[in-house]
Amino acid sequence: MHIREIIEEKEKKLMNAHGTISLNTIGRQRAEELDEIRTCFMVDRDRIIHSKSFRRLKHKTQVFIKTFGDHYRTRLTHTVEVSQIARTIGRGIGLNEDLIEAISLGHDIGHVAFAHNGEEVLNELLPKGFSHNVNSIRVLTKLENQGKGLNLTKEVLDGVLNHSGLSDKVNKAFTLEGQVVRYSDKIAYVNHDIDDSIRAGVLREEELPKEYIEVLGVNCSNRINTLVKDCIYNTLKNIEKNKIEVSLSGDIERALLGLRSFMFKNVYSGSKLKIERDKAKFILEQVFLYFLKNQKELPKFYRNIVEEEGLYQGVADYISGMSDDYCLLTFNEKYVPKLVVY
Fold this sequence. Notes:
It is a single chain. By secondary structure, the chain is an all-alpha fold. The protein has one domain (3-21, 28-272): Hypothetical protein af1432 (Orthogonal Bundle). Helices cover 61% and strands 0% of the residues. Helix 8 crosses helix 9 (176-199). This is Deoxyguanosinetriphosphate triphosphohydrolase. Residues 75-190 form the HD domain. It holds the Pfam family HD. It comes from Clostridium pasteurianum DSM 525 = ATCC 6013.
């Protein structure tokens, strides 16, 4: 018996009946020989970690653009925090931690330079619009591995695609593991973005809405602890009632959504960061327009996409993969004079 089969047998014995057993995966787009050691979701996790797109997350903005302090979150550290929170919730409920980890590590892999500012620019410039979760799927299935994609399981891809939002109007992942990541993403970024905003002097502790802080906790650690425990216990209650979904209890979810709205108003879309947001959007837009006019300067891989899928798609794929630093470097190279010739 292979080690993988031993792990799969343990899953059957230890996991919640509504968790996703690796052996029961829907599968991949292209069939593969099974690994001797790793389950399918362990393989997916490793493929994501070793991808170029994952490595670029270390130089992509979370909220604060081009910060030189060591302690501000980047898109990569956000991803790690989501993974940690999600695995804790998943273990508490009794779900597949390997599937949770794979979804967590891949959930933001399609994000643009300069965070949602870059996403807004591409959404305005592209005829079909742009969203980072849809782009994450394109990266994982089309752009990585020299155009072959990573051939991930459908459970992982579904979790990545449906990690955004908390509204009932948006689609939910069909696995509980994917739904756990959806909540963990919000638990992570609302709290660590508050932490970073206070560190940057954009917010003060006393400005946080008391009606939400009194429910969730007075500091980042307390709030995450409250949210994680509530998500576990409330989901277990749901399952006992045959309501197979991940959720927070009413008061806790209202407090989380309230804090999230506060952050959108005062930080993400607030006036204090508007000047830097506008600079970032200007740079990314100019880089996009440059390659739209000079497509022959695109790397060969993206020129091939232009031939197959059109100019806008090829340029969008190239731009969306850029880190903050590479986007700035490209802007300087294309627009800033290096030498004055008389």
